[in-house]
Each structure stands twice: as structure tokens, then as C-alpha cells.
Sequence to fold (134 residues):
Amino acid sequence: MSDDLTEFLRKRLDEDAELAGRCDGDGCGQWTAHGHTVDFCQVDLSGLHPTIAEHVALHDPARVLREVAAKRRILTRHVLSPAVGDPELPWDNRDDCNWDGEAWPCADLLDLALPYSDHPDFQEQWLPHQIRTR
Ligand SMILES: [Zn+2]
Fold:
């Protein structure tokens, strides 16, 4: 089985990190909300509903970069262990995750991919089983 999901996730995380990096022009990376205004370090944007301003500020570049780093560590742990050449054969004759032993792709990777389900390269088969069967 190919490892398209891991490659898909690596590309999305690279894109997220690249965009966050471009939003951190002055290096502060910490956005803050003050009522109807978001302080983006370089410029303020006002006229937002306070809840939306808080939401935007919460997803500042520094946080996005921390999330990307954490997800990359998860991706490093959950790697494909193909059945071909698997020393566990013949007891476990299936492609599985080297970290948790679940059938590939494991639930953790499917959960990592779910936020990107609206991306044109996302494949329906990557929806977690409980969502697919609704
Ligand atoms: Zn796994």
C-alpha cells in the first residue's frame, strides 16, 4: 500500500508553517484581541465581533507553528509498516502502523488529516470510519 496520506499531511503541514512564517513579519508572532480589535503586531484590524477577534488572535503564527511542530512529531511516530518484509509475518499479514499496530492508515493519522478534508487532494477513504458511516 502506498503512503499517500503521510505525504498529503506533510504537504499540508509545510503549507501551514510557510503561511504562518509569512505572517510573522516582525517576529512577534503573538496576536492579541482587545474587544473588537485584533493586534497583528504590524497592524490592527478593528470592527470584528469580540468573539471573532479572540478566535483570530488565538490562531496567531506562533501557535500555528507549535501545532505544526507537534503534528510533525506525531507523523514521525506513525509510520507505515508494510506487510511485505514485515518480521511479524505470518501472524500479522497486513500493512499497519509501526507505532500502534493499527491497520494502515491508523486512526491518529486519519484524525490529523480531518481538518484538511476540504482540500482538493483529500481522499474520501481518509475520513475516519465513524464519520464515513454517518
Ligand atoms: Zn499510528
About this structure: Residues 7 and 13 are 10 Å apart (CA to CA). The pocket of zinc ion is lined by residues 78, 97, 99-100, 102, 106, 108-109 (CB under 6 Å). The first helix runs from residue 4 to 22.
